[in-house]
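New to this. Help decode both lines:
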Amino acid sequence: MRQQPSIIRVVDLETTGNAPPTHGVCEIGWQDVALGKDGRWELYGEGGNRLVNPGRSMPPVTQAIHHIRDEDVEDAPWWHEIARNVLDPYPRRIALAAHRADFEQQFCTPAMTHGAQWICTWKCALRLWPDSPSFSNQVLRYWRKPHGLDHERGLPAHRAFPDAYVTAHHLRDQLNEASVAQLIEWSSIPALLPRVRFGADRGKPWNEIEEESLVKFLTDRDPDVRFTAETEMARRRGGGLVGRMTPQELLL
């Protein structure tokens, strides 16, 4: 009997808005990534997508992003009817992944995912590829030019399968640079930002700003900014490093 591979399922959602239960899912796409016999991760299977009836009208603002109309989903199944089968497939995945996974996790509850662990490819990209000009799914696509990514299959952007397909290439490459456990750990804590986002020091690496400026970020309302400032302050006090880890540390 052929042994099933270890897979991580990348998912992407299109929705009526950002905040359930006010908003609902109107499409889910997925693409699996599997560990091969050679110890390298690769895309696995064809992936897919399903339209979903969100149970409410599609706001024009979100239609303008994904171009899914009310008439496209009026006969589609409800989210609770399909979510579990997509999110908890056989063979059992070892984790779920998404770009900015905090968004997907709002709609993909632990009951639907069978308590899956998540990898956020956005948070991991900040750690592994801090020199990127930006960290959106599409900017990473064109900056990194992942091997094997079929340009047309990854279009149109802002539809569930093409976005999952692009994200899967980022995840594959991240898994080939760092361990599953490391990616899950980074994904479970606030993001470590490589550069200051705003203010007089905007665009500077955190290790280049004056301590007087750094202290102000310690009380910022954004948890990612606070976490990054705290980590940089700890580095200056001898408590660790901000930025890229060594290859040996990544694979532990």
